[in-house]
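Q: Got a minute? One more chain.
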Amino acid sequence: MRHLFAVLSLALFTQLGQADEQPSSEPLFAATLTDVNDQPVALSRYQGKPLVVNFWARWCGPCKAEIPELIAFRQAHKGQVEVLGIGIEDRAEPVKDFAKAYEMDYPVFVAKEQGIPLMKALGNAKAGLPYTLFIDRHGKVVHKRMGLLKEADFAAATPALLAK
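A: Always. Here it is, folded:
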């Protein structure tokens, strides 16, 4: 009985530890997506920079609600942290119109068929939106958020993003 309890305890603690693990950012930097002008962009160009990577869609209410927060965060940390928006969309033109209407002043990309697989590879097994990763200059995911970003998410991630 003790042996069974020990095995079950170990399994539980192993699962708890895995729940807190952050995904690798490698799939992000290996991807090439299109910009709002339908031109390919290798995301490896952002490697070595602190990033906030936000997956969103035009039809997603919480995605729309957090755009002003992302814009404000980028403005507050201009030159220190870059914000990237990855639209789970098929075509560039409607994304371009949407980005203009919402005054998204950060780089916006169109994921096309890569969107769901990329989100899953980056730790979003359910492919829910919005989904945001905070990645430090070394490529380590320091914080992730499924759902609407809160001020606490920015506060928790900012020191790690700005650390040398």
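A: The beta strands are 32-35, 40-42, 51-56, 82-87, 108-110, 131-135, 141-146.
Q: Perfect, thanks.
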